[in-house]
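**Tokenised fold:**
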Amino acid sequence: MKKRLWLTLSGLMGVTLNSHAIEQYSLVNESHVWPKVQAHLLNPKLDKRAANKLEQRELTVNYQAVKTIGANGRYQHYQVYLGNIPVLDNRFVLLVDKAGNIEQGLGNALLVEEGFSIPHPAPFKLSDKKIKEKLVQRLHTDGVAFVSEPKVSKAFSLEGDDFRAVFVANVITPSNRVNLIVDAQSFKVLRQENDIDGFSSQQSFVAGGGIGGNEKLGAICYSPAPASMQNCLSYKFDPADLAASELLFTDPQASLFSDFSGYPFVVSKQQGVCTLENPYVKTIDYIGDKMRAASYQCAGNNEHFEQTSVDDQYYDYFSYSGVNDAHFNAGLVMQYYHKLLAEMYPNQQTQCDAQGFCLKQLVQNVGNNTHGNSQANWDDTYVNYGTGNYGGTHYYHTTLDIVSHEASHAVTYWNSQLNATGQDGALNEAFSDIASIAVFDYLSQNVSGSYAHSRAFNRKSLDSDTNHRGNRKWWFGWDVLYEDTGGRYFAMPSWDGKSIDHFKSYNPSQSIYETSGVFRKAFYELVKTQNWSIQDAFKLFLRANINCFFKGMSVQDAGMCLIDQASYFTHKGTNNEVKQQIDATLHSVGVVAQNSQLSTLDFEGSIQYDVVSYTLSTVPANQIKAIKVEWGDGTIERWQKNSATAIHAFLQRERLVNIDDLIRFKLSVLKTDNTELVGYRHYYSRAVQAACPPVQAQGQSSLSSITVNDQQIPLNTQPYQSVLTDTHVLNKHVQQVVKFDSSLNGKLVSVLLDNNRDGLFSDSEMMVSNQTITNGQVTFKLKDTISAGIGLMRISLGGQYAFYDACGYAKASQIVDLKADVEIPELPLEAGFTYQIAADNRVTFTNTSQVNDIRQPRYTWRFGFDNQGSTKKHPDDVQYPFVDGNYTVNLRVDYQDDSGQFDEFSQQITLSAPAQCEVGINNPSNAQTIYIDEMHLWTSIYSRHLITGSSGTNANGYVKHQTNLEFKDSLELNVDIRSNVLDEGTIDNLLNRDNRDVRFTIWLDGDRDESFQVGEANYYDVNSNYTKDCRNGECRIKASQSIRLPWISWWKSRKYVLRARLEEHPTSEHGSDGCRNFDYGEVEDIEFTVNGS
């Protein structure tokens, strides 16, 4: 879909740009656009003439190649520029065939009319020094704290209908590193984006090693050979500690550290000093030396072990040696990437190639707490690892999960340069999370020694088909956390309480970590449901990252890119079969790629503890031929058209499933035209019970029973209890009544209902909040947001209920949790509507019918004239004739489930002929005093149109001209007039600069309602628009105004009316007198045609 933009440049104060159109096109499936894009492409090797042109004063749009990659150069990456200045967030990828013809496009491209250019913004001509001075001054004024001099570059930002000249300032703040997008004129910060991705002489290289690990993992001896790290093997911080485990690693197929059989703890050694640096990894002990790689005195076995340092670090951080962990793990990660990339791009001769991948030395700062101790990040130059918060919740951030994640941000930066914000920022995070799983799998396949049999390794490796919640192999960050939990999850990303499992749950306000759950889940399902190995699944994402991921891409773009890699995985099946596997996996998490071959079914689904339900309302029931429900527990249910079963039972349905089970739900609909629609949802079932008991102080236990809606519930005499054997029905349409002993009068009662069925109670789920008991009972209505189904109800009696803890807190109370079933009985079908009459006989109808939306109600309106009607629930405004009349309006409502149920409702409305927007002079004898004697309309100074008949006037002071004039849409329409001959002194008085007493106003009836409102008038009315025009001894008033013509589609033409009003001594506010009479002056209406362009 194209978007028309009129260019203004906020960085160019007072500069008016030519009215050239620039249009933004989506490239996906828009083959007619691709040749236009090719015409603007610039080769990476620009000739000298083209390069010089980019530096000229006038800036033109061009696309500069970023990289070309893939077989036969299939993936061509481009950045949009104005001259040699980039336009932010405007990259795209062209997918070409062997002959260089475009097969597909990803992203958006800007296209301009031939000859379009804009001036070089004045602020861009300032010296770099001056720009930085102004920026620093403004940042100080605005209170923006930073700790180093900003790095500044020039750019344009496309914002709505404007190009804005901006500076991009890369700034390190006290908390993180950010890019500030700064207005080039005012230096005001427009927005902020994270720039950190997070959670010599000839040397000889040798295999080193030493102690690592933390309290949870135990002491680990990174060892190039059995029993080679003796200091580590014999070390115990406390005599009661378990002995250290030995980690041996070999991979004969890896070429990166092939001299050491793939062992990755490789260091340089000179004159008895070992340095934690090799061509692929440089490890800096940031606390000791912020520039040079860490080093140590090494004997024959090259072991890095300094007991005092190990003791101190474990005492402080419950981690043995962050630098050893980081060096081993980073070496393992870089070797893994090198191995995979060498397989995928066997012909690449260098480590960074614009036609392939890029892999550089990973430089890592260990113990860098600049942005907090419980963090790790990649800042476009270094990986930085915090020390952890002394083992309180986090250990040293140099564990394998963390190093894999952050090193993968570096790989992404060297290749696709995905953002750290937006949808591509979520993909960036997901890729790094996915890499942590793949690297651990690589370790698992090649590790040996006692560590391979240690309790920590076995716990981390757990991957069971029955104990999903315990599968630590699919947890990210378990190894760095004190608790037995993960930082993020793959089987069900939502287990972290924030991430989404399905893209249907996406909203732009989510963090990139929350949105990244979609791709984590896709990776997991590719392995678990499509039976891909972890290595193959990771290669899919890695190849896409190299080939066609790009900065600013959308989730749908990423899906298309992933599917397009299918030809590289034909060992998994034919090209089409592999595409189907990837496509189905992406669909299962709600990612619908532009090249998808599947039709998506949109439906509402949910799980309430152990009850799965769905609602299907997006497909009309009369268009459904068959429904297939795969509940995810092995149960399949079907419905067929013309069967004995009514369809409405399959439009909304639920099923009880086993608890603690991963439910892969699938709903398929076959339409009557034989189109199949498929939708997926994944859930995790859990028992109906509170996630944790409330925290209580001075708990009470005096009540032996309570009554809920006349159902008595016996209680044990204890402060808290969960009574889940019986289910208590709560009818949403009626009042709920809870009764208890009258001895509680004067005390407090709170009632909560776990509406989101997560086993926890929040303040938004309070039905009754600390209400004083007066008559031994409490009554309440369920909130409108409460959904039907099984849930938990908590009743607190006695004291104050609060939320100091996630589990709830109560003082001097007795608390009981009950199993409740919220019912929402179907109300009878009743048709109904209200209406509102506007002044111009337009009527707005509001549907008030009482229906069951699940059964897909159908609405049939009859408006009582000219056989006009509608099938919308809320019809558009209805324009009735401009005459007096009575009209009978009828609404019929029925269901589309073949039940035959319907209801009708009729009302009679009475309308009167609306008052027209007619104007005239109050006293006809004043008509000759001042009037319009000449009028021209024009959009080009070379083509001014005289309005025939504009000279002279009549006794009414009003005339309408129906012309054959035609103008193109969106142009500026200018209206010039000259008055009748007036006394020169009169004109001087009327045009007095301090008190002008004449006004010329124009209106364009944009909504064509035959009325001229304030918003339809010319915007400005300044003195400079009026002049005295004297010729041959006769003087007249000359006035001009302009107004923008509306934009309309290129294939359409529309009639519009312009009203021109010249008035002496106006009494109303400017623009508000379009339909008012006047004492002195004239009004003329001009009808003309506007054509789309």
In short: Confidence is low (pLDDT under 50) at residues 1-21, 43-54, 198-202. The radius of gyration is 37 Å.
